[in-house]
Each structure stands twice: as C-alpha cells, then as structure tokens.
Amino acid sequence: MFGWTGAILRVDLGTGARDVLRLPKAVYHDYLGGKGLGGFLLRDHATLAPGDPALPLIIAVGPLNATIAPTSGRCHLTTRSPLTGAVADSSAGGRLGTELARAGWDAVLIVGRAMRPTGIEIDDADVRLLDASALVGLDTQEIFARLRQHRPKGSIAATGPAADTGCLFASLIVDTHHAAGRCGLGLAAGQKNLKYIAVHGTGRRKVADLAGLKAAREDILRLTAASPALMGQHGFSCFGTGSIFDLMDSRRMMPTDNFARTRFPGAEHLNAHAYKARYQPRRHGCQGCHVLCKKIAADGRSMPEFETMSHFTALIGNTDLELVMQAGDLCNRLGLDTISAGSTLACYREVTGQNLSGERVLELLTGMGTGCGPGAELAVGSAKYSRAQGRPELSMSVKGLELPAYDPRGAYGMALAYAICARGGCHLRAYPISHEILRKPVATDRFSFSGKARIVKIAEDANAVVDSLIACKFLFFAASLEEYARAFTAVTGVAATAQDLLLIGERIDYQERLMNARNGFSAKDDDLPPRFFAEEGSSGPGLPIPPVPRADFLACRAAYYRIRGLTPDGLPTRETAERLGLPWFDNSIAR
Amino acid sequence: MNAQLAKYAAKLAATGLCAPGDVLMAALDDELAWSAEHDPRQPLMESVFAGLNISALLLARPAGVYQAVMAELVRQALADGGGTGQGSITPGDCETRTFLHDLPVVDSLTADGIIQALRQRKGCVVLHEGEALVAAFGTVSPEQAYVTMSSMCFACFVAYFADHLRTLRAGAMTDQRRASFARIKALLPEDRGDIDGLPDLLPGPFDSEDAARAAIIQAGRHTVEYGLVDSYFGNISYRLPATGQGTGSETILISQTGSSLDELGPCIDPCRMDDGSCAGITASSEYSAHKAVYEAEMASDSAGAGARAMLHGHPRFSVIVSLDCERLDCPKLGECHRACDTPRAVSDNASGLSIPIVPGEVGTGPFGLCNTLPPALADTTGDATGHGRGAIVYGHGLFTLGAVDFRDAFQALMDVEHFCRAEYFRRVAQLDAG
Questions:
Q1: Final residue of a domain: which of B189, B223, B258?
Q2: A276: nearest CA partner in chain B
Q3: Which residues from chain B sit within 8 angstroms of residue A451, using beta carbons?
Q4: Mean of pLDDT values over B106-115
Q5: d(CA A413, CA A114)
C-alpha cells in the first residue's frame, strides 16, 4: 500500500508481549488512520471502564504523515476518558506522528498494565520496554532532559506527576512543548503504568504520485499565504494562537469570572502583542508545518496558547502576564490540561468566593498535579468537584469536559457544537469560530442558529477526516478537503474527492456516537450549563450579549439530530449505522 | 435562510451576471429552502443535494457577455476533453488559481453530471441546449455559492478575452473564432464611467474614524456599482492620523477579509500601525501590502504625510491587459504570476498615465504581492499634479492611491480601466490586421 504500511504495533504492557496487527486494506480505506483508525481499534472495547487494563490506548497516524503534505506531522490518540467516560481523543503535535510513520507503523495499540512504570522505545521495527520507575514524580522538563541524554533523536511523549497521582485531566506532553491535552489522556497512559513512549523512525512513506502531491501542496500553501488568520501580520504565524485574544475581547465573548461575564477589563494589556514584547518568543512548530504557530519564550518556556492566555486571566480574574507564563509552565511540567485546570480553578473560585492571588493559583495547580496539599481535591475536574460541593451548576463543562475560551453566548454555532460534541466541551470538532468569527470560508451570523445544524454536522465530518489523514485543523481556515483530497489521492493512489472523504468523516463521527451511546450518553448530556441560557453576557454599546435562547437552541439541536441520523434523544439508529457500514449491536445502546 | 437566498439571487441579477428568474438558489439545514417556489429546476437540484454533503446550491444561467464567453469556453473544454463529456476550463487569473483552481465542465444537464463535477470543485459549467449554466455549492451558506458563481463569471470573462489576444499573438486565429469574438464584443456593456462619470465621493481628509468609515463604505459601494470588482474580492483602506486621546499610533481602517465592498457596514477593521493589537486578524488578506504601502508613503514624505487612501479592485480589462505579453517564448512562461522580472507597465503618453505591472500572489509568503506591490507603488508619481497613482498585480487587479480621500483613487481605477479597455481592443485590431 502507498500511504500506509499495514502494520499496527500492539504492545501488552501486562505481559510484555509485542506483536503486529494487520488489518484488511478496506479498513484503511474506510477509516483512513488517526482518529478514524483509533476509533475502529477502540470500538469493540469501548464499554470497558477507564482504568481497565484491557481498555486500549491508541496512538495512530494517517496516510499523509511523513509526506510533504502541509501540517501532516501530527498524530492522534484515542481511548475512553477517565475524566468523562466518553470517547477520549486528542490530536498531538510535535514530531511524534512523523517519527511513528517513518518507523513503519500506522498505529501503536497499547493494552494491559505494567507491573511498574514503563517506557516504550521504538526504533523502526525494534520495540523495547524499559523500566521507567526512576522518572516517577519528576516533572516533564526533567523527564525530557533525562531521556534526551540517551535518545537525542526522534520524538518523546511523557506523562508528568499529574498522571502519576491520578489527576483526571492529566495530559501527555510531547517533545517538551506540545501536548495531547484534553480528556485525561495522560492519566489513561498512567493507568497502564506507561510513563513515556519514544519513537525514532528512519524509513520513508511510499507516495503513489509525487508530482500530484507537489501540486496539491502548492495549492494548499497558496491558500494559507492568502489567509490573514494564518499568515497575516496579526495571525498565528506571527503571534501564535493568542492572536485570537483581541477578537474575543472586541466581540465580547471572552469567558470571564467562570463564564459569569464575557468581557474582561484590561484585556487589551494582556494580548499576544504584550506577550511578544515582554518575552521575545521565537517561532516553533510541529514537524511538517510552515505556519509555526507555536511560540517559545527567550527563556525557553512555552508561550501560552490562546486558551491558556484567556483562562488564566479573564476566567480567574488575573491581570499578571508573568503568572500566566508560570501557570502554563507549571501545567506543562506537571502534565495538566490547561483548559480543564484553568476552568476548574475558576469553578473553585466561584464556589468558595475566594479571589485567587498568584501564589494561590500556583499552589492550587501544584495540588491538582501532585495529588497532595491544597488543590488536590480539584484533580477530579470541575464537574465532580462542584457536584461534591453541592454546586453542580458552577462547572462550565459539557459531559464533564471543561469549556474552552469562546463564550457560547457570542457564537451560537459554537453553542451547538459544544453541546453535541462527542468528547464533551470542545471547540475543535466543528470549529464554528472559523465562520462565526474569522469569516472563513464566509462569515455567518454568530447570533443566529439558522443553518447551524447542518454547518456543524458537515464541519464535524470534515474535521474527523482532518484528524484521520492527518493534518492540522488550523490549515482549514484557508484550505479545504477539496485540496487535501488531492493530496490524499496522490499519496495513496486511492481516488477520492472531498465528498468521498466527508462520507468517511461521517462514519468516523458516528462510530464515536455509537460508543458513547453504549456508555449511556444521550441528549441529556448534549447540553450546556444552565448559566448560558439564564444570564446575560457583558453587553456593550450596540452589542447586546443576551442569554442563548433556550428554545432556539433545542430546536437547532433537534435539527442536528435529524441531520446526523440520530433519534430525538440523540441516540444512534440501526439504519444510519448500517448505511455507514458500522456494526450494530442489539444491546448496544444503553437505556 | 430565505432572506439570504433572496438576497444573493437578487445580487446576481443586480450585477448583471444573471437575468432575474434565471437563477435558483437553495439552502438545506434539516429542510430545503428555495429562492423561488414552484420552480421546475427544483427536482434536479433536490437530486444534486441528495448526492452531496452540502448546505447550499445554486443553478444559474449567466446573462449577456458572460453567457457568451462561458458557452465558448465550455464548448472548447469539451472538445479538448476528446468526447468524454467532461473537461475543465483553466483560467489564468489570480483568484481562480488561488481559490477555484479550475472549472470542471459537463456536457448535459443531469443531476449525476453535476454531482460528479461538484465532487471535484466548488462550481462547474454545464452545456445545456447550447447554453452555459453554472452550478455551485456551499457547505456553510448560500453566500459561498454566490461568490463562486460570481468569481467564475469574472474568471471566464478574463480567460476568454486574454486567450483571444494570446491566440492572435500566436498567429492561430481562425475565421470562426474571429466571428465569435465580434459577436461577443458587441455584447459588452458600456463603461459605466463613460455614462455617469466619477461618483460624488466624500472629500477628505478625514480626521475621525466615523468620517473615514463613511468614506470607505461609500467608495466601496461605488466600486461594485461601477463594475470595478466582483463578488467579495477587492479591498479598501484609509490611514487615520493618531489622535491625542488614542494609542499614539496611526490606524489603518481596512475592509475585512471576505467582505463585499458594497456591504462593508461593520466589516471594517481598525488596525494599529504599531501592531499593538491583533484585531486585524480578520482584516483583508492584503493588509500586509496596504500597511507596507502606507509605511513607504510616510517614509518618502518628510512631513510623514503621503497617501492616506488605497483602493483595490478587479477591473476586467486591467487584469486582461496584465496577462498579455509579447514574449511567447519566455523561459518563465507559466510562472509569470510570481516570477516575472521584466519591468512592465501600461502607459499612455497622451495623458501621462503610467501604471506598472508586477507579479505577486494573494497575501503573504515568498511570492506574495506584499513584497512586490509596495515598491512598485512607491515608485509611481502619477501625472503632473500627482493624481493617477496605481499599480496592477499580474492577473489579479489594480491598486490605486489617494492623497487625502478616495476621489483620486477611484478616478485612477476608472481611468486605468478605461485606458486598458481601449488598449486591449487596439492591440486586437493591430494584431488582427498584421
């Protein structure tokens, strides 16, 4: 095959066994790789409880990895979330995807639980398991420093103290500055006693039509050059994802004080320009990317992404840039998801009524990530914490996953997308910010639900493809599957149009909904916290930010269910599953 | 949704791309909505919807000269397709290269044919009973289908007339082609500037943001009404002086990316020239070029003055003339849009008009027009009174400057297009005679 090797590495940490799983070619054609392949490998085990040794953790690449297709260096992780109980998946940057593809593997499927903390080291076909006990308790910076001494080449992904101590939103840190951040994927690794995975590959992906791939690449690069959001003077390439910060302020949709308000006084002094002036960052990016949206400060710390910038300021009432830098750095060292960490802090702040000093913020984060001292009780995330405090309504989450930094009262497509997202409160699955804020491919009315049900459905399908090919979703502010379909065909030799890929994306998305339904998720979980329907945002002159109209939201969600082929209760149907070629189990849907 | 459908169907008619009633638009959320009820084309479009994962669809019969050039091009593309019933038109203009890539063609009006073409690209041309029809879709809103249709009309217009001149230069003209050209030429509408003259634009300088916004909105609307730009392309900006109360930085007010110049309203971004804010992340793709031009203007004027207004349109004959080159054996043929290093210009000795033509792609990047346009504009002096400053980006469009308001910039846009139209037909006549 071109684009795939047909080899999946299966590692049983319980027995130490390693073998090669080979799937029929049709599986690759139907699920592509990455997110799609991860879901395929998970689905027969999706009802296993998080922490069950038999529950697989999958790291998968796609056919575009390790080719010249732009932004194809990422990989995708999939399992069941210890935080939410829903399907957990996350795209991870750095070089891990490229190295895995070059090593000749389409995926690594990890099952079992090691007797002691273990590292998996992969050098092409050579796979070794090593005792990683010495790394337990160290922060990720120290872990990377130690591992790089004997593995200067290749990619390394490691968990930090948060995973060691059972934090439900522990992340997996990749190549020092990147993360598989959400859903507790770091803890999923920790529950297997997997401390790190290091990969170095020396092979090359076979490409069916190099000239065709170069042509597709040129089209994509031309589109990104025309994108102000990506390559413009105020865009991601110059300022990182933090370049969105000013827009969220001017659009009055910056989550403030645990989403009680939508505008943060003084935000103009906390923007990406302010960080750039103070920390003199350099550009850095994932393997195979020309945008280089990642920024690293002159002192070596990772610059905060937009979500971190927003949640560690407006959401918790902080105006100190350096505290944001310290908090972000601490989260990376501990292996904490910054979105969940920031939102859980904000929830704590509102529940307790305490204002948080800088010292207190760092203290609480340390507690979350080490499981001891103040903040340890927050390691369960905002949903479980607020429930334990008798204030469940103060968790700003969907399905237990904390919301990112776009207030849904300022973008109704985002409101729907948050609610129905299979992994919970996530902005990236449908990414309506693209059209509701960044005007791509065209602008839509952000205060209207009109048309949003189908827009969200199509976007979810498209982004499922992006996470399976694999590419970076940011590129789709400029390019589309029209161009990437040509790259896919050129790499694999499999004729496919954007519409063919969208059908695959629909299958991948529905596969997740089938798994969630078997775990008891339904319409009751496809909802936003009540605050958004009851409280006005921070309205301004000529710009009212009313509560999300509940009736309109429900009507739009019902339309989404019809378009997606779900029942009025948000459950999958046999008819749609069969249309998409997905297996159906009579007892598969939890009632 | 119905309002959007009606709006964009009406815009196609208002801009002369279609006759009223010759366009049907539909949008699908969980139910279909139509721009016109009980239309006989509905069953066909329903079938197309059933075959594609889309949210909006357009089927239209282009009018006038657009119909004529599209019909010519689709027949040629089908002939080149060797009887397969398929093929594609590949215009050489910048917008097509960047956003549409090429335009698939279909030889019959069937749902399956349209579906197959739209699986490849955002829009297609269908040959039906000797006429060209356009089908285009959107995955977000009907506006996408409208933009694609509008862009296709522009691209085909430019492609046809540019190709005619190229054919003449190659010595490959046929009587049949010559006759078609005469017929199509007769369909060209009169130059709006010849009829109405310069619109009554607000006089500058503008010292307040409100005044500058009003001038931008007005000039943008007229740029579309005069046919100097299509769909949502083109952009416009004004450099506002720093105020005592503000940030101390000059501000560029510029149209947002993907905004229609005739509907700017709130779609104008204020961008501080000191880059103290990233609010311009939604600004035009050409913000970098605008900013570099203004910086060059300020640097070249000892008082820090220089041009304050900048207007960018896609006047058709300016684009067509920019594509015309005598060097048919140039080793950089096919790379002209980014690699041409031959100094080129359109010049009129009689009026003193001299407009450089430079390469450059949309936006930034190593070949971006942000690298080529600013020095080209900086070198322009205009006529004896300093009016008429502008530059054409190859296959893309015309950028013009105004000292204090948009009157100069608009006048230059009109004058250059007027000259290029005459110059085009002068070249055709000269080559055909020779």
A1: B189
A2: B276
A3: 1, 27, 29, 55, 140-141
A4: 96
A5: 43
pLDDT digits (tens, 9 = 90+) for A406-458: 999 999 999 999 999 999 999 999 999 999 999 999 999 999 999 999 999 99
CATH number of the CATH domain containing B237: 3.40.225.10
The confidence score (pLDDT) of residue B349 equals 86
Do residues B269 and B403 both lie within one domain? yes
Quick check: is A213 in a domain? Answer: no
d(CA B276, CA B252): 12
Helix (H, G, I), strand (E, B) or coil at A296: strand
Let me know: does B68 contact B184? Beta carbons within 8 Å: yes
Contacts of residue A300, defined as CB under 8 A and 6 or more positions apart, other chains included, come to none
Q: Which of B268, B278, B371 to mutate to test the interface with A (most CBs of A within 10 A)?
A: B278
Nearest-Cα distance to chain B for A34, in Å, is 22
Cβ-based contacts of A268 with chain B (< 8 Å)? 277
Domain residues for A86?
8-200
Tokens at B222, concatenated: 């007229």
pLDDT at residue B366, as a whole number = 87
Share of chain A above pLDDT 90, in %: 97
Say whether both B99 and B171 belong to one domain: yes
Q: Please check the confidence at residue A50 and state whether its pLDDT lies above 90.
A: yes
Closest residue on chain A to B143 (Cα): A442
A and B: number of Cβ contacts within 8 A: 167
Cα separation, B295 vs B301, whole angstroms? 10
Q: Same domain, yes or no, for A310 and A389?
A: yes
β partners of residue A78: A58, A89
> Which residues, at least 6 apart from A275, have a Cβ–Cβ distance to it below 8 Å?
A242, A281, A295, A303, A304, A309, A321
Least confident residue range of A148-162, A252-266, B94-108, B122-136: B94-108
pLDDT in the model for residue A41 = 98
**How high is the pLDDT of residue B84?**
86
- Structural domain range at position B146: 2-189
Q: Mean pLDDT across chain B, nearest whole number?
A: 92
- Which one of B138, B281, B361 has the shortest CB-CB distance to A244? B281
Six-digit token string for A446 = 């952000």
User: A585 pLDDT exceeds 80?
Assistant: no
Distance, CA of A534 to CA of A311 (rounded, Å) = 22
* ipTM, 2 dp: 0.94
* A234–B147 CB contact, under 8 Å: no
Per-residue pLDDT band at A591 (split at 50, 70, 90): very low
Smallest CA-to-CA distance from B138 within B269, B262, B231 is with B231
Q: Rounded to an integer, what distance in angstroms lies between the CA atom of residue A504 and that of residue B282?
A: 32
The whole-number average pLDDT for the span A96-119 is 98
Q: Do A228 and B282 touch (CB under 8 A)?
A: yes
Residues ≥6 apart with Cβ < 8 Å to B116: B86, B106
B107 and B171 part of one domain: yes
Judged by a CB distance cut-off of 8 A, whether residue B99 touches chain A is yes
State the pLDDT at residue B244: 61
Rounded Cα distance, A77 and A122, in Å: 17
> Which are the contacts of A65, defined by CB distance < 8 A and separation ≥ 6?
A33, A72, A73, A74, A75, A97, A98, A100, A101, A205, A470
Instruction: Report percent pLDDT > 70 for chain A.
Output: 99
Q: What is the CATH number of the domain that holds A556?
A: 1.10.599.10
* CA atoms of A293 and B3, how far apart (whole Å): 39
A33 and A146 belong to one structural domain? yes
